[in-house]
């Protein structure tokens, strides 16, 4: 589990194919900020742009670690197969503060940035989310964008999906990799865990009512 509070901005410095076909995944080498790996061990979970991955090797002297990403994960996420900056968050510990919201590290869909511009001292980020996620998005609700816990300021249902608007304070832009986004960038989205369970409960209740109706 995670909180969506980024604890470091790393960089993917190498991408190696694990095989020659499209069914093979890739091995990523990630370079971390100083001391980031001091409490990390083999097998630990680290979220990369919001996608939970397992540490497969450590090079502490170089402040680097590797993860193996399956073809399925690559197909369902964005930004995990190219060199460049990446948001990092280590798994939540039982005694940690829950500063963001409950995040599983399982990407629910890939959105597309439609607008990213400074407004006053802050930045407005608009993302077109897949239509399948629209029912989980709400005004002042939580959303995870590339692993960052954020609050939805506005939503608009469109023919091609659901556009959500988010306000980013300067601290968020400066201390995450979101500052490198631009129009048409693809981003990983994870909906609020509670919304997912509420939807499941309501749909199950509706099915039960239909089955028992005279």
Chain-wise SSE layout:
Layout lengths: L7 E10 L8 E6 L13 E4 L2 E9 L4 E6 L1 H6 L7 E7 L18 E11 L2 E8 L12 E4 L2 E11 L2 E8 L1 H6 L10 E6 L1 H20 L2
Antiparallel strand pairs: 1-2, 1-6, 2-5, 3-4, 3-6, 4-5, 7-8, 7-12, 8-11, 9-10, 9-12, 10-11
Keywords for this entry:
about 210 residues; about 15% helix; Elongation Factor Tu (Ef-tu), domain 3; six-stranded antiparallel β-barrel; mainly beta; about 40% strand; six-stranded antiparallel beta barrel; 12 strands; globular
Protein model, in words:
With 214 residues, the protein is mainly beta. It folds into 2 domains: 83 residues, Elongation Factor Tu (Ef-tu), domain 3; 92 residues, Elongation Factor Tu (Ef-tu), domain 3 (Beta Barrel), CATH 2.40.30.20. Strands 1-2-5-4-3-6 form a 6-stranded antiparallel barrel. β7 and β8 form a beta hairpin.
What is the compact description of this entry?
The relative contact order is 0.18.
CATH topology of the largest domain: Elongation Factor Tu (Ef-tu), domain 3
Strand count: 12
Average pLDDT taken over every residue: 93
Radius of gyration: 18 Å
The proportion of strand residues reads 35-45%
Can you list the strand order of the major beta sheet?
A: 1-2-5-4-3-6
Our count of domains comes out at: 2
- Main sheet overview: 6 strands, antiparallel, barrel
Distance between the termini: 43 Å
> Are there runs of 5+ residues with pLDDT below 50, and where?
none
Based on secondary structure, the structural category is mainly beta
CATH class of the largest domain: Mainly Beta
